[in-house]
What does this fold into?
Amino acid sequence: MTANPDWPEISSALLHSQTPTDRPDLVVHVFYAKFQSLIKDIKKGVLGSWSAHLYTIKFQKRGLPHAHIIVFLQPHSKLRTPEDIDSLMSSEFPDPHSPLFEHVKMLVHRPCGDQNPTSSCMVEGTCSKGFPKPFREETTLNEDVYARTRHLNTGQSHQFKMGRHDVTVNNQWVVCHSPYLLWKYRCHINVESIASVKAVKYIYKYVYKGHDCTTMQFGRCQDEVKQYLDACYVSSCEAMWHLYLFPVQEQLPNVVCLQVHLKNWQAVVFNPNGEGTVQDVLDSHAECKTTLTGWFEANKLEPEGSEILNLLYQDYPSRMVWHTEENNRRWTRRKEGFAVGRMYYAHPTSGEHFYLCLLLTSV
It folds into this structure.
């Protein structure tokens, strides 16, 4: 494990600011540089053979950016046993003489409960994050939540200064992390393993939950509708992020939406302020290919015995690319990577439309 020497040099300018948000441009550039390097490491296999990922950049009320990332691994790299998880993650303090020990401070949950009942994580008298974690002799896989990592009771406690308070913590307060990523990037990176497909719905909802909002009160109007205004809260760091045109979301591989329609019932998009009548628009789009009709044409051109002929409609984007040029809509062979096909939904009461969709999933 070797630390990247650029991080301390890049971050040194922040030390001259009283708070990180005094220089949002530096905060954004440092975060973006580290984040792009992290994504490259993930795709290179730092967590295992990469298959797909998606992320969303969000900003806290105090203005600091953070990212929610979901990583999908190849079947042979999935963490299926407690030993696999322990080889990649840790929820414990390392040896006090290890250089990594000082960095684990960033992964310590601020003490709450009896030690700090006014902590922001406290909800109805208990920590909403589940701290302190119970001591656990070994890692276990749960059916519907994250894997429960090991928290050994070593009998050792460590004293840290958090803000203005001196706190004493043990392994119960350590957030799950990857020692390698912590050593390389020297920042808070929480890593979890999903032990069951039941947690996927929660994960996706959490990543796409949207931006924070703020509620402002105007005057003393008795009308509740007029009294409050729900608005998007934009911090200085988020404003800088958008000014630099940095991406807020990414999803790899891409999802290609596939049309499913009956003959001459494809969707037509047109400009209502354009020239011509509705009939002129329909006539001009009569011969326009869709992903479905283009799929029919592409299969006709494939030679007998081609492996492309064995692909279902929904699997076509994994090997083929759909070109959307107005006069050249067609499928061609994919040169690199792959994509995921997703057919538009057809309601069971839509008759032949639904049966066509059902047929395409098996023939």
Q: What stands out?
A: Residues 61 and 233 are 8 Å apart (CA to CA). Confidence is low (pLDDT under 50) at residues 1-18. The chain is about 25% helix and 15% strand.
